[in-house]
Structures are given as C-alpha cells and as structure tokens.
Fold this sequence. Notes:
GO terms for molecular function: SNAP receptor activity. It is a lipid-anchor. It is found in: Cell membrane. Belongs to the synaptobrevin family. Keywords: Cell membrane, Coiled coil, Lipoprotein, Membrane, Methylation, Palmitate, Prenylation. The chain is of the alpha+beta class. It has a single domain, classed as Longin domain (Beta-Lactamase, 2-Layer Sandwich). The longest helix has 57 residues. The chain starts with a strand and ends with a helix.
Amino acid sequence: MTTRFFSISVILAPPSGKSTVLSSANDLSWRIMTFSSRTVAERTAQGQRQSIQEDNYTAHVYNRGVIITDQEYPVRPAFSLLSKLLDDFIAKVPQSSFSDSSSISFPDINTCLQKYQDPRQADTIMRVQQELDETKIVLHKTIESVLQRGEKLDNLVDRSTALSAHSKMFYKTTKKQNNCCVIM
C-alpha cells in the first residue's frame, strides 16, 4: 500500500507571535512538513476547516491541527481524524505544558500516523460503505445463482412435461397395437 498520509501536527498558534509545534509525527523526514504545518495553522482562523493543495500534497487544517496527505486522501476522514486527535491531545496533555518551546511527548500522534494510512480506519462512514459494497456484491452473486437455479428448474419442468406427453403417446400407441391382435 502506498503512503497517503505523510504528517500530522498539533500546533500552538497564538493570535500574535510565532507558532510552535507542540507535537508532530512525520512519515517523511522533511523540514518543509513542519514549516508548512506551522504556516497554514497560523493563517487559518481558530475553528475554521481548510484544505490547501500544493503540488501533490494537501494540508488539512482544523483548530491548530494539521494533516498533510496526498491529493487522493479523502477530506472527511482527515477532518474526523484531526477532531479526534485534538480532543485526545487536550484531554491528555495539560495546558500548562503548552508554553514550553520543546516538543510535547504524545505517543498517540505516532499511532495515528501509522493506523490511519488507510482512510477507512479513520472514517466510520467509509468503512460502513465498504462493507455495504461488499455485501451488495455477495447479494448480486446469490441472486444470480438463484436465477440460474430457477432457469434449471424451468428446464426440468419442461423436460418432465415433454416426457409425460411422450409416455402418454407411447401408452396410446401400444394400446392400439395391442387391440389389433387377439391373444389366445
């Protein structure tokens, strides 16, 4: 499977001043990922969802969280993952540690980077849709085989009717032939 989700960051971006990366995980060791994440977080208003495309990459930004993916990664799973990650971050990391200039240890961010390479893992609706599609395929195959069995049953009924008609003709023919001869 090709990597479709490259970077995830939680950023402290005060209304005035320089932003700080609180925690991040990168699949690629590019400094540009950190710079890009900080820049788009600074330029996106708190509470606003925004997706920015640059070359083959898309940065999804929400509430100071940034995910950088390729262009094929769906938008809805990216934002649901950001919401979940930010909720977990706020719940597990005390706000008093936000002021430190050093990166905050938050192992869940690395787990997210690895686990959600497949967007269906991040989005329940996509997962359910995939299961529905698979179920639909199975149902189509089942209906197809039932129809084929129905056709075979129709053929058997037709043959049975024809065999019954032939046996009646055979009976009548043998009865006529037996009537012409007298048995002594």
